[in-house]
Amino acid sequence: MNNKWLPTLNLRLLIVSFALLITLITLCNSFYSAYRVQRQVLIDHALEQNQAYAERVASSIEQYLNVAQERLAYGASILGNDFHNQKVLDDESKRLQQQDSDFDTISVVDAEGRILSSFPPEHDLVGQVLIAPDSQQGVQERKPAVSNVYKLSSDSLLVYVSQPITDNRGTYLGFISGANYLQKKNMLSALVSNHFHQDDTQVYVVDRDGQMLSHSDTSRIGNKERSAVVKAVVQGNRGAMEVVNSHDVRMLAGYARVPSSGWGVVAQQPKEKTLAALGGLMRQMLMGALPLGLIGLLILWWLANEIVRPLRQLADSAAVIDSTDSVERVQAVRSWYIEAAHIKQALLNGINLIREKMNWLSSQAYTDPLTGLLNRRAMDAALVQMVETRRPFAVISMDIDHFKQVNDTFGHDVGNITLRTLAQLMQLCCRDVDLACREGGEEFTLLLPDIATADAALVGERLRVLVEQTQIETVGHITISLGVASWPHDGELVAEVMKRADELMYQAKRAGRNRLVASVE
Q1: Has this prediction a pTM greater than 0.85?
Q2: What InterPro entries does the entry give (predicted)?
Q3: Confidence of residue 1 (pLDDT cuts 50, 70, 90)
Q4: Using CB atoms within 10 A of its CB, is residue 363 exposed (0-12), middle (13-18) or buried (19+)?
Q5: Catalytic residues
Q6: Between the chain's N and C termini, which has fewer beta carbons within 10 Å?
Q7: CA 56: distance to chain centroid?
């Protein structure tokens, strides 16, 4: 901070500013939490509404298909008694089509897929043979069916509902179907639009393959949708989710399945429209909270004046907390009210605690607590320093042979004694400049600066013999395997040298353990 600002800062201003900052943070957090909660409530409510609406539309379509199947089944029973009478076929087709507006076209098809009768006649379908895979569904399955989107040669798109026709002996004769042309107003589009829904809510229906059956944008009818919500509904699921539509607009969608046909209904609305009212609500909350906030600020300023004197002295003392006389400075403060006395005592306790912690941390940060050797962090720091200063060094990597058997046989307490004993022996064999480290478990490392590989091997061999000859409480004798490598002889990178030392150590283990293998210079 620039010194020219120091005279304008006082403890009262800092207290007020800090308290005001905390108040603002709390207020912002409260508003943000309220915003998130209200936002999620609106989203969840919209998702629930859209799912409920999709369920209602799906239920209506299911009822429509069931009624249509019943009507076609009745017509099929009539045709089964006189299937080869063309007049009967024509009359029944006409009756079903004119009975209500459920179907645009009624057709009677024989067992080979040939259309025998169709009404209204202007579609000129009689005599044609159904060859498309979707249109062959009624012929192949010989049971009640609801088709996917079917494209005629005239580029017209339709879906149809069919019922098989059998005679009195159950012989399959063909089927009767009712078709709806999707690109004009039909019963399906009427079912979707007859239900109440909110502004900007978009409802569409897809078939089992995800092709559009009904949509407010008729140009999309027949297109195959690949959105996540369509994938979910064609798999037979029901629920709600947030999706991005074909125009990259985030939508809140509910979806439901029509059981008998496998179709799916999706009801969705723009997320932005759902959250449009949220901004105004949050502004009202903010304006309502401002008067109380101003009153609180005045009270805060008055309280700051009352407590500023002793606290300023404590703040001045805290500013030099790292000085040698910081304790004496704090003790000299006259704390005339209990809160100041508590702060004074807490500051004294904090100074003592910080000093203790700093001493402890400086020891713990680079020391292995079990053995008292340097830990991996200290070893890495030493390696970096030696490489940066281009100071050559040797690495002795070692591992206790069969240490797992020691733990398994005598327990971990005895294992710890073994580790500490090895650490003591390592320190006995080290020079003052050497670094004895424990990497973890039973793995230890000696870093020897300014020494050739051969000389380092002598140090390692002296340690190996000393370990082999030392009697350890409860365990008896142990052995170690060692690998010796050096920098920069075995690699320019520290990792390469450490890896080489480990490889040589494992080579020693494979050669029978209780031995040292050194890199050849």
Answers
A1: no
A2: dCache_1, Diguanylate_Cyclase, GGDEF_dom, Nucleotide_cyclase, Rev_trsase/Diguanyl_cyclase, Sensor-like_sf
A3: very low
A4: exposed
A5: 442
A6: N
A7: 33
